[in-house]
Write a structure and sequence with these properties.
The complex is a heterodimer of chains A (267) and B (168). Helix content of chain A is 36%, strand content 22%. Chain A has eleven helices and 14 strands. With 168 residues, chain B is α+β, with helices and mostly antiparallel strands. Chain B is built from six helices and five strands. Chain B has a five-stranded mixed sheet with strand order 2-1-5-3-4, with helices on both faces. Chain B is globular, with a radius of gyration of 16 Å. Chains A and B meet through helix 2 and helix 5 of A and strand 4 of B.
Chain lengths: 267, 168
């Protein structure tokens, strides 16, 4: 194995250009599990934790190297809530937003936030910057559209200050757990509603049928909330695996989405 | 490849193979056996160390990426003649059963006290959520830890919280 430890972004992009397809190492919380279990033996690893450029952030951009711990303390509300559910303090201190996108697990904890904020993933290479909408970037379970010479620079999203947002996840216990179902909801002042569900499809899913139901509705009544729940249940595409059955996931998705929406409405 | 890092305040150099973790480097290359090797997936916290100021699972740090890092292990906190206050509290409260989780817990609690000495009872539970004790000796561990927090006006370790409480 060859380890390259660039000091800055330019160094990392040079290293990627000379080693296209090299394995990228950020916090290690995904990669090292696979390495320890001998599922992966990367030939060339480019370590990213020394890159200050990946830690930049402002109101509409978060760098790929920002850790979960930092997101808990200071991120848009739905993302902060999702970050708090990640692993344990040890995992949150090491794992990064960019790593979550690179792994692109259907259960990726940050992904419901990307979907409700219509975020764009910013990629960098020696050729310059490339931006992809979240649903262009996420192409399937553990696959994404990053090219072998590109680095994930961070996530750009619109100003969300006028909207309420909330997120939640369900797992088999309260800490150190990968989502069985995760959820993000955004509700704007004009009634625009967005709902994103994780771990119930090949990638995080938006549920347009449920969103349309509430669009422009000022104060949704109980029957409408029940219909919202039903539409989320109908709109997800879960599988059965070792974490949960498809039936459980479908049911939990509806309940979680309705409760998360209610927090936006009543919050 | 050669890795140079600072461990418990001392400069150390070790030859590591490609896929080794920092945990392996500490235990097998530097003969520091305090951090324990258990799950190798970041689930159990028995390998907890402080890396550049952050509490991490050393099994999830690639050894080759620890170049230039500052690491504190349980060996850096105290020794049998001079126990760290956390170690003393664990002794005083009988917070050790098989002992396998203890070094990781001691490092995690010491880090908590250093970074958030005013932590509440709930924050304490959350701060230790990544350190599993398979003997389930959490009551004594929480009592030991609570005795060290500046804010002691909590119910952690009371009979009620042990029966009805759950880890965060």
């Amino acid at each position: 194995m060859r380890m390259i430890r660039p000091r800055d972004l330019d160094g990392a992009l040079d290293a990627l250009a000379s080693n296209p397809g090299a394995t990228l190492l950020a916090g290690g919380t995904d990669l090292m599990v696979e390495v320890n279990l001998q599922h992966r033996r990367p030939e060339t690893v480019i370590a990213l934790r020394r890159l200050g450029e990946l830690r930049e952030r402002d109101q509409r951009f978060i760098g790929a190297g920002v850790t979960w711990r930092e997101l808990v303390a200071d991120a848009p509300p739905a993302l902060a809530e999702l970050a708090r559910t990640v692993g344990s303090p040890q995992i949150r201190a090491a794992g990064t937003l960019g790593g979550n996108l690179g792994t692109a697990s259907p259960a990726g904890d940050a992904l419901p936030f990307l979907a409700i904020s219509d975020a764009r993933v910013v990629l960098a290479s020696l050729d310059g910057l490339r931006e992809l909408r979240w649903d262009e970037f996420l192409t399937g379970p553990k696959t994404n559209a990053r090219r072998g010479t590109e680095l994930i620079l961070g996530v750009a999203f619109p100003d969300l200050s006028g909207a309420r947002q909330a997120a939640a996840k369900v797992g088999v216990r309260q800490a150190m757990v990968i989502s069985s179902v995760s959820c993000g909801v955004l509700r704007a002042e004009d009634g625009t509603t967005r709902v994103a569900m994780g771990a119930v499809g090949p990638t995080v899913l938006r549920i347009p049928e449920a969103e349309e139901l509430l669009a422009g509705v000022d104060v949704p009544q109980a029957t409408m909330l029940a219909e919202f729940e039903q539409r989320v249940r109908d709109g997800v595409a879960p599988i059965t695996d070792h974490r949960a059955t498809a039936e459980y996931r479908r049911h939990a998705a509806g309940v979680l989405a309705r409760r998360t929406l209610e927090r936006c409405l009543n919050g | 490849m050669i890795v140079t890092l600072t461990v418990n305040g001392e400069p150390r150099t070790a030859e590591v193979a490609g896929f080794e973790s920092l945990l392996w480097l500490l235990r097998e290359r530097l003969d520091l056996r305090g951090a324990k090797d258990a799950c190798q997936q970041g689930e159990c916290g028995s390998c907890s160390v402080v890396l550049d100021g952050e509490l991490v699972c050393s099994c999830l740090v690639m050894a080759a990426d620890a170049e230039g890092a500052e690491v504190t292990t349980v060996e850096g906190l105290g020794d049998p003649e001079h126990l760290h206050p956390v170690q003393q509290a664990f002794v005083d409260h009988g917070a050790v059963q098989c002992g396998y989780c203890t070094p990781g817990l001691v490092v995690a609690v010491a880090h908590l006290l250093e970074t958030r000495p005013q932590a509440s009872a709930d924050e304490l539970r959350e701060a230790l959520a990544g350190n599993l004790c398979r003997c389930t000796g959490y009551g004594a561990i929480l009592r030991a830890t609570t005795s060290l927090l500046s804010d002691r006006d909590t119910s952690v370790g009371s009979d009620a919280s042990e029966r009805g409480g759950r880890p965060s």
